[in-house]
Amino acid sequence: MKHIISAFLLIFQFLAGSGLCNLSEAFSNDPFAARCARFLSEHMSSTEKALVPEEIIIENIRYSVKARNLMPWGRSIPEDLFMNYVLPHRISQEPVVNWRPYFFARLSHEVINEKSMMDAALNVLNWFYNRVNYEPSDPRDLDPLSLIRRGRGRCEEINIAVIAGLRSVAIPARHVWVPAWSHTDGNHSWIEVYLDDGKWHYIDPSSCSGQFDSAWFSPYIPSAPVIFTHSLQDNSCRVYRAGPYDRICELTDGYSSTVQISVVPEIGNKTGHDEVIVTINVVNGGRLRPLFSSVTSTGKPVRFSLSPGTYVISAAIAPLPPIYKCVKADSDTRVVIDLNTNDNPSSQSFSCTISPTRNRKSRINSRTPTTCPKRDNQKKLKRVISRWIGEPEDTDVVEKLASVGPSVFKLLSAVENLQKDEKELTKKLISVTPPKELVSANPHRLIEYLRHVKNIADPKIPGHIFELFLLNPRILVEPVDWKLPKIFSLLPHHKGETLFQRAIEIGNILEGIRIQKCALLPPAVTPWQILTSGLACSERDKKIAAVALFRSAGHPAVFIDYAEAVAVYHEGTWYAFNPDDKKNPLRPLRFGELAVKFSGNEKYCSSSPPLRYLRDFCLSKWTGRRFLPVRGAGPVWNKDTCSYNFTLFPGIYDLSVVRRNPPDRNLLLRRIVLKKDEAIQIELP
């Protein structure tokens, strides 16, 4: 059976990946288009080639060349800029769709009579400003066409769509981001546009800025520790990280002054014997957020370029957890970290005071940006949806459906004639589905998904477990394609099959999936694409596919991000799934309990919690190479004990607490070693 499954996946892989081998042959009569085809092919991983339809790539090249030939500025753009910032078929990690013909048809007549790229770019921006609102959401990026359908999105999603629009009319544009601010929580992204003066200029589409080099965040640019962009092969950029298919570039010194931080890890007199992971972190969101990471050896310095500020530098010899050092870098700084103090992980504690730093040079323009036009259609949508489904306007399901946008009515029309029990199940499905996953949902495929889950699920499964870990169409942050019934068809079917037997079969399927090198920013893919191509970019992708296989067979399952583990529920017990263990792939999970109490806050115990998780404090688990924040299993506030309670996988954790004492912020960090079935209480000031 194992060999049959592997052969089945290889056939799918051959059919999916056979189209892009001779892409340049489609443009044999156009030398420039043929060069474009070769460039794209060289910068697509085998995984991406297997998953992206050939017709999308061919259409993308044709319309790129067409725009270059038709737009007044098209042929004046240097070829390397065109290849990197006009030609690519995707901008970041959004799903790949055929957006270029759509935007070219709607935007070419808006710009073709403009004499400058600046005026043309502002016309494109105004077109988007009248169609899209900013709205925070989860980190999964919508593709440009889905964003237009929804009419709202977070900053990166809006940037992706606007860049697609600009590139569709041959205006070079690129995505720019700050991974974490150093003066406050959160991050941000914007775009840069290449204009007539031969320079890049920034603008912020998510705030509807109408002027270049001016945005709401301009005064805060000195607090951006590092600024990145992405390209395929821009030889003029300062490369931070280069992969086989693309690169991430630093733009920080184009916005503000920078300093050099040189880090030297040491273990007594030993040099060059150990692999050391060095990371530069900032305090953001109640925890340490990594900015840079590099691998070196003891005694060998590694250098980073950042804006002046206070940073927390960590060094670790995997699999041991890191040692921290607090560094205020107002000028070029050399830091030595002694790793001899890492003998007892449970004894580690650390504190750091972060003070605001003034930057000597900042690319700030004092002009006031324009504001977004008012386009609040939510109230009208809520009224119509409320009457349609017979629910009050303030219910969660109406709120969720209204945030999907106008395309929601296509979905409502499809589910209108369902049976009463299916309608109730549809409401539960909507309640656990992120709104953006309903924007482009095929209603008939969604109904097939719903009926499959209804028919396959054991009615004894508790309601909350059924909804969150079986009915829920999303596993982590991957796109939802509603193909769970098709995933089920990949599994062999036997009467009376046990969960243990099913786990072995799923392990055999995962063996047929090969992990290959991908782009640094790979496109978002679904479990169905991973399973049918037989290719994945990481172990995480394989584990997400494993969860989809379990769910397709009616077994509630979850990918626990911070522990990098798959857990499966059966008859009141959660089991850890290990596909490499052929004799016993499922073992009962045993957790530890952690209670965190903050002294001096007793007066708050009878009301709301004194601190907020992932804003004021955070718990992160050491994986052997990095810390991952605990999400999805966040703390439960117990007012009787005045503590936050966690149920966690065993392992090494760092508990970070950020106290705000304006203008300073104080970080307190405590390391915790949690064992199976152990209960620990930590009290912090």
UniProtKB/TrEMBL annotation:
Residues 347-375 are annotated as: Disordered. Residues 347-357 have a biased composition (Polar residues). Pfam families: Transglut_core. SUPFAM superfamilies: Cysteine proteinases (SSF54001). Residues 147-207 form the Transglutaminase-like domain. InterPro entries: Papain-like_cys_pep_sf (IPR038765), Transglutaminase-like (IPR002931). It comes from the Bacteria. Gene3D superfamilies: 3.10.620.30. Signal peptide: none annotated. This is Transglutaminase-like superfamily protein.
